[in-house]
Design brief:
With 469 residues, this protein is an alpha/beta fold. The chain folds into three domains: 57 residues, no CATH class; 259 residues, Aspartate Aminotransferase, domain 2; 116 residues, Aspartate Aminotransferase, domain 1 (Alpha-Beta Complex). The protein contains 13 helices and 13 strands. Strands 1-7-6-5-4-2-3 form a seven-stranded mixed sheet, with helices on both faces. The chain has a four-stranded antiparallel sheet with strand order 10-11-13-12. Strands 8-9 form a two-stranded antiparallel ribbon. Strand 4, helix 8 and strand 5 form a beta-alpha-beta unit. Helix 4 runs parallel beside helix 10, helix 10 crosses helix 13 and helix 12 packs across helix 13. Bound molecules: pyridoxal-5'-phosphate. Pyridoxal-5'-phosphate binds next to helix 5. It is an enzyme of class 4 (lyase). Keywords: Decarboxylase, Lyase, Pyridoxal phosphate. It holds the Pfam family Pyridoxal_deC.
Length: 469
């Protein structure tokens, strides 16, 4: 270590550790303060280089096929975001135009998602879909509680019905706000929620059902219209009248452009709220999500605070107070810059790449596709058909791909499909056909190596942590 550190210093003499008084070797061998604040200031160039060098150990974002989050934006977006880095989203009085761009984005999404009145759209930006889901869940809880109280019924045991494949934010919502999570188990051949499974689990204490447009585990769309129809039948038959929320974290920016005939949004009367992540297929760097309600009736007024200590009186419904404004500006930029046709091209391009890559993978002996990425969001999962006879598992493949820089996560499905272990590829803007071919080639080599080494498949317990993004 010492040797390479010195060699490094030889070419970049500005990178000397700050000398520590009373300690020998401060020039090159002293401590870089890590876990305590240094006593004095440091030259910014040195600090910059130190931090930057340390970050070289991070993965390469473009080769990270695990994340759903945008890892590439064009240089104009970079510039705009840098110019807005100091803007606080909550200071709507000081930055009225940033606030205006936020509300334009809400209008745009309301139109894309067929809200009954897109001009009088009800919604806001958030830090991401997790916060958006918390807000939507809170609104459903409040409405359920108000209805129960008005009828003189107890309102202390709310539950939420959703597939076991929900993203972790819904389990967080349930735990943080004391709502019983009713997780519908998966089954062989059924990797997400269906109407037939959801409706029977609803009762008078159900605040809502969550349908996912673009399941985290395999990219498939849940059949939102079918779930809505099952809930319609439940209510028509004298059962509870249960609202439907659509978690369109990924699909909210894919379906409107690629699947215009699919009814999944406010076109379905049962859908009361929808969330999406601007920083996933919304094509913005991390830190922005969106949540919209069908109309004012579905967002209880008591959840909206009016604050005046920043000048002016602005309504706010958020878990955070201060947060960056640059991402919201960048969202408006992306919508403006791409337009409907631009988003369609980007998303269709991603689907083409996902389809081509999943075809190549399906053609490799040991793999079997769980989804193909060509319908739904451009995300697909695949498994090793028979790990015991292949002599390796998805976890071995993931590990070996890492040695080439690719991050392709391997994980087990949630209950009751725990036996299914998969690798998942998230195709995003910036992952083109060339990179896809390179990945396929590396995957082929990994299979050859694993087959040749004939290692026995590791016991299942070796990697049990579910992978959520
Ligand atoms: C990513 C994701 C979330 C959480 O979104 P963040 O924007 O990362 O907070 C919620 N639901 C689904 C379906 C997701 O894919």
């Amino acid at each position: 270590m010492r040797e390479s550190a010195d060699a490094h210093l030889a070419v970049r003499p500005q990178l000397r550790w700050p000398a520590r008084p009373g300690r020998a070797g401060g020039e090159a061998g002293g401590d870089l303060p890590r876990y305590r604040i240094p006593a004095g200031p440091m030259d910014p160039e040195t600090a910059y280089q130190l931090v930057r060098d340390e970050l070289m150990l991070d993965g390469n974002a473009r080769l990270n096929l695990a994340t759903f989050v945008t890892t590439w934006m064009d240089p104009h977006a970079d510039r705009l975001m840098a110019e807005c880095a100091a803007k606080n989203m909550i200071d709507k009085d000081e930055y009225p135009q940033t606030a205006e761009l936020e509300s334009r984005c809400v209008n745009i999404l309301a139109e894309l998602w067929h809200a009954p009145d897109a001009r009088d759209a009800v919604g806001c930006s958030t830090t991401g879909s997790s916060e958006a889901c918390m807000l939507a869940g809170l609104a459903m809880t409040r409405r359920w509680r108000a209805k129960r109280r008005a009828a003189g019924l107890p309102a202390d045991r709310p539950n939420l019905v959703m597939g076991a494949n929900v993203q972790v934010c819904w389990e967080k919502f349930a735990r943080y706000w004391d709502v019983e999570p009713r997780l519908v188990p998966l089954a062989p051949g059924r990797t997400h929620l269906t109407g037939d499974e959801a409706a029977p689990r609803c009762d008078e204490n159900t605040i809502g059902v969550v349908a996912i447009l673009g399941s985290t585990f395999d990219g498939t769309y849940e059949p939102v219209a079918e779930i809505a129809a099952a809930l319609d039948r439940l209510a028509a038959g004298g059962g509870p009248d249960v609202p439907l929320h659509v978690d369109a974290a990924s699909g909210g920016f894919v379906a409107p452009f690629c699947d215009p005939d699919l009814a999944w949004d406010f076109q379905l009367d049962r859908v009361v709220s929808i969330n999406a992540s601007g920083h996933k297929y919304g094509l913005v760097y991390p830190g922005v999500g969106w949540v919209l309600w069908r109309d004012h009736d579905h967002l209880p007024a008591e959840l909206v605070f009016k604050v005046d200590y920043l000048g002016g009186t602005m309504p706010t419904f958020a878990l955070n107070f201060s947060r960056p404004g640059a991402q919201v500006v960048a969202q408006y930029y992306s919508l403006l810059r791409h337009g409907r046709e631009g988003y369609r091209q980007v998303m269709e391009g991603c689907r083409d790449v996902a389809g081509r890559l999943s075809d190549l993978i399906a053609a490799m002996g040991p793999f079997e596709l769980v989804s193909d990425g060509a319908t739904g969001i451009p995300v697909f999962a695949f498994t090793v058909r028979d790990a015991a006879s292949a002599g390796f598992s998805v976890f071995d493949v993931s590990e070996l791909l890492r040695t080439r820089g690719w991050q392709v996560p391997a994980y087990h499905f949630p209950p009751a499909l725990e036996e299914l272990a998969v690798l998942r590829v998230v195709v995003r803007n910036g992952f083109g056909p060339d990179l896809a071919d390179l990945l396929a080639a590396d995957l082929g080599r990994a299979v050859d190596r694993l087959t040749a080494s004939g290692r026995p498949a590791p016991p299942r317990a070796e990697a049990t942590s579910a992978f959520h993004h």
